[in-house]
Amino acid sequence: MHRKNDRSGNAQNESWMRLHCYMTGALTLAAAVLELIMAFALNRIEGFVSAEPVLYIIKYLITPVTINCVLVLVGMLAMKNRWLSRQTRQTMVSLCMAGVCLVLYEVHSLFPALILLPVVAIMLTTSYGDYRLTSITAGVCLLGVPVVDLLVVWDSTQRHRLENTENRINWLLSIVMLLGCYLLCLASIYYERQRIQQAARQKWELRRDGLTGLLNRTALNDRLGQLCAGGQGVLVMVDLDGFKQLNDTMGHLKGDACLQKVAAILRSRAGEEAAFRYGGDEFCLVFHAPELRRIVQACEQIGRSLEEMEDFSPCRVGASFGVAEYRPGMTPAQLLKNADSALYRAKEKRGSVCLWKEQTE
Length: 361
Description:
Elements: H1 2-43, H2 53-80, H3 86-107, H4 116-123, H5 131-151, H6 165-206, H7 217-230, E1 234-241, H8 243-250, H9 252-270, E2 275-279, E3 282-287, H10 292-307, E4 318-325, H11 332-349, E5 353-355, H12 356-360
Parallel strand pairs: 4-5
Antiparallel strand pairs: 1-3, 1-4, 2-3
Helix pairs in contact: 1-2, 1-3, 2-3, 3-4, 3-5, 4-5, 4-6, 5-6, 8-9, 9-10
C-alpha cells in the first residue's frame, strides 16, 4: 500500500513540477507584456520615467527578460533531465521561479507590492509536501531580498526602497511577512501530511480484517485482479480442520485466539502482503511466482505449525490446502473456483495439499 501511495504521490509531483515550470514561463511572458504596456502608459506621466527610451528598454525590458528567459530555460532543462533525481529537479524548478520573482522585484522597485512575488515563489513549493524544498526556496528569497535591496542599484535615477525611515520600516515588515509566509507554508505541509496519513490509515483499515489483522476479501479481489493481469501466480485456499470442534468446545474467545494464532503463522510463512482472511475459518495465500514445489512445501510447513499449537489442547487444529495455478485467460472468479475445487478434494483427505491441475488430468 505504501508503495502504491508513493507512486501516486510521485506522479502528482511530476505533474505539479511541469505546471510549476510553465507558470515560471508564463510569469516571465506576462511581465514582458506588462512592461511594454507600462513603457507607453508611464511615459505619458511627466517625471515618472526619467530614463531615456533606449536605456529604459534595455534596463526594464531586454535585460530582465533575458535573465528570466535563461532561468526558465534552466528550469525546463532540469525538469526534463531524467538523470537528475526528482528532488533535485523540483529544487531547480523552484529556485528558477524564485530567481524570476527576485529579478522582477528588484527591476520594478517602484512598486512595493512586488514583495508578494517571493511570497508566491515560496507558497508554490508547498504542493510538493517537502519541508526541505520549501526551506531552501524560502532561504533564497529571505536572503535574496536584502541582497538585491542593499547591494544592487538597478536604476540610480529612481527612489530607493530604503531612502527614508518610513520605507525602511515597510521594508522590514516585508521581510517579516516573508518569514511569516514561510512558517505558514511549513504548517500547511505538516497538516497536509497528517491528512494524507490519516486517509492512508483509513484505507489500510478498510482492507484489513478486524480480528486477525490480515488483508480482507476486498484486498484479495484486488490482488487476484493484479495476478491475472500479470499473467502468472498461484492461489492457495486454506480451510482449518477441527476449528468448529474447538469453537464449540472451548468457546468463541478461544476460537478468536486460534484464528489470530493461525493468522500469525500464515503471515510469518507467506508474508504480510500474501496472506488473506477469506471468511470464517478460511484463508487465502497468493503467490506471484509460480513455483509449485516450493508452494506445496510452504503449505506443508504451515500445516505442521498449526498442528503443533499447544494453546488449545485437547482440541487439535490443522489445515487443508487447495492450490490453483493461474492459466492464460483465467478470470479471478475462475481462479477462486479452481482453488475451491482443489480445497474440497483436500478436505476429503483432511490435512492434505491438493493441486487443481491434478484434478483435470
